[in-house]
Amino acid sequence: MNVQSPTLRSVREDDAYPTRQRAEEKLLSREDPVLWSEWTEEAPISRDEAESYAEKGYLVRHGMFDEAEVRHLIDVSQDLRENGRKIRAEDLVTEPESQAVRTIFRLDEHSTLFDRVSRDERMAGVASFLLGDNVYLHQSRLNYKPGFSGKEFYWHSDFETWHAEDGMPRMRAVSASLLLTDNTSLNGPLMLIPGSQDVYVSTQGETPEDNHESSLKRQEVGVPSRATLKKLAAEAGIDHATGPAGTVIFFDCNTLHGSNGNITPMPRSNAFFVYNAVSNALTDPFAAPRPRPPYLANRGAPVPIRSIRGDLRKG
Prior knowledge:
Number of domains: 1
CATH architecture: Sandwich
Structural class: alpha+beta
Radius of gyration: 18 Å
CATH class: Mainly Beta
CATH superfamily: q2cbj1_9rhob like domain
Number of helices: 8
Oligomer: single chain
Strand order of the largest sheet: 2-11-7-13-5-4-3
């Protein structure tokens, strides 16, 4: 991919990834590693998996949880959605054209089971290896894409938003998407542009006040232009990550991704856990007037996760 070295002048001297400026969109070279740890025999993933993650910016892992654990996760996630009215309003996002639950934020606070999942060695342990540091939860959420009417999630880099609006300094975070339904090529699975983690899209246009209020339903600020998406997809293609319920997709914070709408009868739901390196704690936003609310970004002093082993159903 042809990219430029960072040349834009930032308002802040410590801004390695300027974005949302009045100047035209630019493609900048990533300044941080993708894989922060050296692979050894003690690593929680194989050498091939580590190399693939560094190259493509994502990793799909099957069979991490047994059938009984997966069934329990599915049951609890369905109960959370059906009882969405009991969840505080600020943690809920509904579909753009209906009151159907689209996202539940602060998942670890609303469910002891999902709090346990976030600290499981199979999740947090892999994240810690990928980031080469102790980790904490930057954000957690449950995403639903109902059959027939589930809306799309447009192409974006999570890091661009987390950097601009939350104040995440460096590309040292990873998302872990735990599939709670079978994700097929038809029902709106996660799509990714492999290799895009190495390219930072410095977008054009300033951040509006309270941008999160609209971006959570339809993101329009901080997203790559169609010309850039066409260029990157032409160079590297587009992958889609699928698998049965219980599959986990780890993807780098800067990997461009999105998903199509779901008009099949088959719903799609995933639990997301965003792990940030403790050394990468949030500062003031780099391109927004004020930080986003706490349910979108954990701004407290980072508390390292202590990984837990064992059956999820046993606490």
